[in-house]
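Re-run with default settings, no changes from the original entry. Doing this only to confirm the output is reproducible before filing.
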Amino acid sequence: MKRIATFLIFLFVVSCELATTEPILVTSEELLSAQAEIIRIAESVPCTNASEWKFTPMGSKACGGPARYIAYHQSVERELLDLVEQFTTAQKAYNERNNVLSDCLLVGPPRTIQCEANKAVLVY
């Protein structure tokens, strides 16, 4: 429960800061917590039919582009995509503010999704 409350506070701060010209101030711990919550939601539905699943880019590399792709079930799409967008914006601001370096390798989108042991697996 504490993790959810922390994540909701994080989202409130990010959404308020997005509406202003103030920089987004977020810690690496808050980013990790937000990422964990996104993954929890994405994995909350067992994968039994790959055609019901989609994927989206998530996060921001310091050099630009997504940090990764994440699979999600259609039933959590609205909730998840809003969180992913807020997380990506916050990570981009964090990277810029802290002069984060990355490998600058482009992360391409997966070709498809498969279900393995009730988990969605991205196939590249």
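The chain has three helices and four strands. The chain has a mean pLDDT of 88.
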